[in-house]
Design goal:
10 strands
Amino acid sequence: MLFVILLGGRHPKAKIEVHDVVFVNAQNLEGTFDDLRQEWFGDQNGLHIDSWMQVDGVEGWRVEFSDLAPASGGPHLYFINVGGYDSKAFGEAHDYMLLVANSKAEAHAKSKQMMSDRWSERHTDAIFDVDDCLPVFSVSGRYINLVKGDSRGVLRFNKYIVIPR
């Protein structure tokens, strides 16, 4: 199962909590903890999960792991980080999307259509092919393959969970 996890924690050069997104293939959330610790760039003390997505499928495509690389020119799973500004809040607001597209340019165009209109100065902060974000040690050299078909979709959770040492 693909997990997309928003980590929070401290970094020696930061005054406030910092965040990053990590992608892990695991059977369950607890099965991601070792990979999350290995991927985190900051202080291990206080490392925690703020949110996560459990991804079985996106836009009518099942997410499966395979030893075979996906076909070139075929659909890929993209992660998009979009941002903007809410006039009633301090700082930049963010949203995170998973989209299926045949190219980074197509993913970018699709994400623009889905951006929230509640923000001003909406923009894309990052677009990644999820295959390029998976740590090799977590997938044993396997790739994401998208298979047309039914799935449970994407389950989203917001909950503070300290990652035990």
